[in-house]
Amino acid sequence: MKYQIMLQIMMRLLTRRKVTARELADRYSISVRSVYRYIEELCVCGVPVDVARGRYGGITIADTFRLPSGYFTREEYAAAIAALEAMKGQIDDENVNSALEKLESRKKEGTSDLAVCGNIIVDGSAWGDARKFSEKIKVCEQAVNNCMRLSVDYISRSGEHSRRIIDPHVLIFKQNVWYVYAYCHSKQQFRTFKIGRIKNACFTGESFERREIARDEIPLDFRRSESQLIDVTFEISRDNLPDAEEWLGIDNIEPRGAGFIAEATLPDDESLIGKILSYGGAVKVLSPEILKDRVKDAAKKIAEQ
What we know:
This protein starts with a helix and ends with a helix. It has 9 helices and 14 strands. It has helices spanning 2-16, 21-28, 32-44, 74-88, 94-105, 132-146, 241-248, 270-277, 289-304, and strands at 18-19, 49-52, 58-61, 115-116, 120-121, 148-155, 161-174, 177-184, 189-194, 198-207, 229-236, 253-256, 259-267, 283-287.
């Protein structure tokens, strides 16, 4: 019985996204204390349920959380829901209500692909991430398009965990990384958030008034404050040209002799060394000298290990 109620609470949250402990207690004939105990166990199981008090209070489940894809097509979902709704009007059976609620919680509102600007499909996720990243993008896109305020759990580069209330204004894709440019109510100013560092995101139920932003006001040199930029020149072998083009951009590479030369401005951090080494010698650093020395030192450490 306990696990059945826990499952029903999760389905209720997936349908409503935000409820109160008293509402759940009355619905399932349990105490408020039991509700909080079940919520804690759901969290232990990895379900992103949050309990908040105050203006945005209530029990919520992240809008980025979805159950795995089921066995129904969209048409089968619609037919099953229609049949159960018709049955519900004639039969007073709690099992019918429960089944209908479960199906409603899984109802497919759109495709699982990312669609930004209509016909552009983008998936910035890693291979095999079960579309978790895709769900974050979809929530952020919906928030931007419809001026919907978000509550996000954000983990900074230093590992600091914080809850932010943000008004997303623009989605930005740069160097294969997705960002959302949003007004942060905690900092009382616009900030750029890396979507990959958003753990969970929930709609607060409030809308915001979009602020006028000039294109030049949006900072696109995200890494400039974190690390310096460096002008580099590479020699690239023909066999690795396609990968290098995707990394550095076709416009930055030109043929020269038997190979290719690339000139680019890149963030000067440890990820640059790792990227160069990942080509296994197919990308040679021609300049600057300090970068050549750092690559040599890193390669020696790898050899020693």
